[in-house]
Design goal:
Blueprint: H1 2-52, H2 55-61, H3 65-98, H4 104-116, H5 119-130, H6 137-144, H7 152-177, H8 180-188, H9 193-221, H10 225-230, H11 241-248, H12 253-284
Amino acid sequence: MSGDSNQEHKCIGRAAAIPSRSREIALKAGLGLLLTLAMAFIALPVIALFLRSPFDTILETLHDPVVIDALRLSLMTSTITTFTVVIMGTPIAYVSARFNYWGKELADSLIDLPVIMPPAVAGIALLVAFGRMGLVGHYLNTTFGISIAFTTLAVIIAQVFVSSPFYIRQARTSFEDVDLSLENAARTLGATRIYTFIHVILPIAMNGLISGAIMAFARSLGEFGATIMFAGNFQGRTQTMPLAIYTAMQGDLDVSLCLSIILVAFSFVVIVLVKTLTRKVYKRC
């Protein structure tokens, strides 16, 4: 009797396990299909972009004055922007990570605001603030004869405005991950706060800071909305690569495709670098 009961329980267990196994297989198949569709959705436009532009056509288009001017201006302004963001953003991120002060939440919210603000709105805001008749721009124009809007400087200001949160947020996280006991130990041994920051904190947080700088550079390179609203679209002066793509679409598709491929390739390099540096940070932790 006992043997029959055990056999019956085993049969019931196997019968219950079959539907459970089937559901697991169906779930994995569904997730696999969803992942495949998502990857295809993202990869298909990129593949189409490269297939539409043969390599020899890209090489020929690289000599086009529009491409040369846009590439040169984009690299120059994005480099200046990145250095500006790093110099200004590093102490801001450190203060935000290490100190509590009145209005900190408001300050952090203002720093993050450009991330969710529509680029066109950011451009209009910059124009009414620093344009010739703007809140600050009017004073600069009448007093010092300085006009910012629709100049290369306006491109840099627009890029700094939209890209600075990407660096500051990453830098803030990197500083928060630094063990506070290391900083306190250095201070206990007589090191000044500046010496501790340069020789203890910065080396530990360096990979995260570089990662943030790369993301800020990439965001600057791809900026469109704020730039066209505040700086205009003048070849050689304010026409960066995204603006050149928009303009070329109306006449020369090869130029537009060439610049698009350059930006796609750079975006891929940025992703690889950021992932590599982030992985090194987590391994160190």
